[in-house]
Write a structure and sequence with these properties.
5 helices; mainly alpha; elongated; 0% strand
């Protein structure tokens, strides 16, 4: 579960280097957690969850404002 959450965070941050910087950890540590070879410390996991929750809140606010979701085909054409 931790690895999947971190993988989602990696996508949200735009890559492993940016996520490692955001979490304040070494890239090598992050790679271990992403591969599910070990788990992150609780404080790091909580920071990752904050990122997930912030993204959820952002999407919820967009939907409440009536901003339509972009389709993948729209993104590819842009």
């Amino acid at each position: 579960m931790c690895a999947r959450i971190l993988q989602q965070c990696e996508q949200l941050q735009g890559g492993g280097d940016k996520l490692a910087a955001f979490l304040g950890v070494k890239r090598s540590e992050l790679e271990e957690w992403l591969a599910a070879r070990s788990g992150p410390p609780r404080a790091v996991f909580e920071r990752a969850m904050e990122l997930i929750l912030a993204e959820h809140d952002r999407r919820t606010a967009r939907e409440a404002a009536g901003v339509p979701r972009r389709r993948r085909s729209d993104r590819a054409a842009a």
